[in-house]
Each structure stands twice: as structure tokens, then as C-alpha cells.
TrEMBL record:
InterPro entries: Beta-grasp_dom_sf, Pro-tRNA_synthetase, TGS, Thr/Ala-tRNA-synth_IIc_edit. It is found in: Mitochondrion. It comes from Myotis lucifugus. PANTHER family: LARGE RIBOSOMAL SUBUNIT PROTEIN ML39, MITOCHONDRIAL RIBOSOME PROTEIN L39/PROLYL-TRNA LIGASE FAMILY MEMBER. Residues 1-41 form the TGS domain. Keywords: Mitochondrion, Ribonucleoprotein, Ribosomal protein. This is Large ribosomal subunit protein mL39. SUPFAM superfamilies: ThrRS/AlaRS common domain (SSF55186). Residues 246-268 are annotated as: Disordered. Belongs to the mitochondrion-specific ribosomal protein mL39 family. One of its GO terms (molecular function) is RNA binding. It comes from the Eukaryota. One of its GO terms (cellular component) is mitochondrion. Its main location: mitochondrion.
Length: 268
């Protein structure tokens, strides 16, 4: 980002990712050596990497919203944000909610509440930060979420230094390789559009939360947005990992909830 500042305001506002010696790079990730840099935008001839980063970033924001939306007595376990191509029509986050919520299905008002919380994150204009940490640190952060623990162990085993890449905006941290967009305010239109029940494991019901968003650079007319929303509500058919289906995660979240925007029917 600092390099973009030396070029022009256009590069600062429009750049979503950088290519550093041909490798996709977060805009706020520090450079470690002399290198060749190319800036990527949504208007490039091939915006594939930018679109992928945008989708992953939106999924992470939705995960934050879900984790913090329910009252403190309900446990929320974020499982993973499955990789879904932009052309599929929706980004996703798989979640296990407290067993007391197994019969709960979100109303339109609940979905609007999730969406409102997401728009609050957008308004705050929070930067996405890359954190490369020792696996021990990552395991401590996510010690109450077995799915994240398993993912951290898997990623740590892939390099001798056992370094794991996390991303953070505000005080929310997730396990994701990235790269991600520079700031939450890159998002413009954003809606949590659907929640689907997936198959149950031995002990848990898995929910797939889905959403749709367009960046500030590519806003859509209301009519087009409505059609895109309708498409985003269809179940995204991405398979769950076999390791998860065998056992399922223990209920729990890595940090306390900080707000209570959703009250499921029957609980007060």
C-alpha cells in the first residue's frame, strides 16, 4: 500500500491486491526484500485473483457476524469458509450452532439483522492484516474450536518452521491463507441471504450461511441486485471434509461474543 501511495491516489483507491515477483500479495503485508510489484484491480482483463480475494474476505466478514450475533449463552463454532468460485453466486461459511438451536431457522428479520451487522463492519473501514505466527500461538487462539485446531495442525505440518498464516480485522481473527482485500470498506452492497441445513454428524447439525456482495467499484442496479440475490439463496453444493463428517467439532468459540443481535424464537 505504501508503494501505491508513491504512484498516485488512483492506485491507492483502486488496488485490491499486488503481485510481488509474480506471487499474490495482501496490500498491507510488509515487503521483505527488493522485488517487482504489479497492482491488481477489479477492472483488470483477468480479475480472477482479485475476485477470489474479495469472496474470501466477504466470507470472513460473514463469519465474524455469525460468531457474534447470538446471545452469550449460545455456543457458536465456525467450521470453515469453503472455497466457492465467484461465478457460483454466493460465498459461504459453515457453522455449528448450539444444540438448543437445532430447530431454529432464521426469519427474514434475522437475515436483515446479520446484514446490518455486516454493514457496520463495512462502515468501520477496518484494514485486513496478515499475521504469520508460530503454530503454538495459533493453537492457543483457537483452542476451543477443534476444526480450526485441525486446520492449523495441517497447515503447520506443511512447513518446517510450523508457521501458520492468519488474517485479522478489528479484533476478529480467522485461519485463512488469503490474500484478502485491503479494507472492509471495499465492500458496498452486502447481504446475508440464506442459511441451509447440511447433513448432521454424530453430534452436530452443520449450517451453511450464504451471502452476496459487490465491491464499491462495481455496484449493481436494484433490479440486477435482486436477481443476483435470488440466485445466491440456492444451496452452494460444496462437500464437507470427510474428517469432519466422521466426528464433528466440539461446540465452542475462540472468544466471547460482544453483541446480541439475533434472538432465536423461544429463547429470551
Amino acid at each position: 500500500y505504501s508503494c501505491a501511495m508513491f504512484l498516485s491516489e488512483w492506485y491507492c483507491k483502486k488496488s485490491i491486491l499486488a503481485l510481488v515477483d509474480g506471487q499474490s500479495w495482501d496490500m498491507y503485508k510488509p515487503l521483505t526484500k527488493s522485488c517487482e510489484i504489479q497492482f491488481l484491480t477489479f477492472k483488470d482483463r483477468d480479475p480472477g485473483e482479485v475476485n477470489k480475494a474479495y469472496w474470501q474476505s466477504c466470507a470472513m466478514m460473514m463469519g465474524c457476524v455469525i460468531e457474534r450475533a447470538f446471545k452469550d449463552e449460545y455456543l457458536v463454532s465456525l467450521v470453515r469458509a469453503p472455497e466457492v468460485p465467484v461465478i457460483a453466486g454466493a460465498f459461504c461459511y459453515d457453522v455449528v450452532l448450539d444444540k438448543r438451536l437445532d430447530e431454529w431457522m432464521p426469519t427474514k428479520e434475522n437475515l436483515r439483522s446479520f446484514t446490518k451487522d455486516a454493514n457496520t463492519l463495512i462502515y468501520k473501514d477496518l484494514p485486513f492484516e496478515t499475521l504469520e505466527v508460530d503454530a503454538k500461538v495459533a493453537l492457543e487462539i483457537f483452542q476451543y474450536n477443534r476444526c480450526k485446531v485441525d486446520l492449523i495442525e495441517e497447515k503447520a505440518s506443511q512447513n518446517p518452521e510450523r508457521i501458520v498464516k492468519l488474517h485479522r480485522f478489528g479484533d476478529f481473527i480467522d485461519v485463512t491463507e488469503g490474500p484478502l482485500i485491503p479494507r472492509t470498506s471495499i465492500c458496498s452492497q452486502f447481504e446475508v441471504s440464506a442459511v441451509h441445513n447440511l447433513q448432521a454428524t454424530r453430534s452436530s447439525l452443520i449450517r451453511r450461511f450464504q451471502g452476496l456482495s459487490l465491491p464499491v467499484h462495481l455496484r449493481a442496479h436494484f433490479t440486477i441486485w435482486t436477481k443476483l440475490l435470488e440466485r445466491s439463496r440456492k444451496l452452494m453444493k460444496v462437500h464437507l471434509p470427510s474428517s469432519f463428517l466422521k466426528s464433528g467439532p466440539p461446540m465452542g468459540t475462540s472468544k466471547p461474543h460482544t453483541n446480541c443481535s439475533v434472538t432465536p424464537p423461544g429463547w429470551h
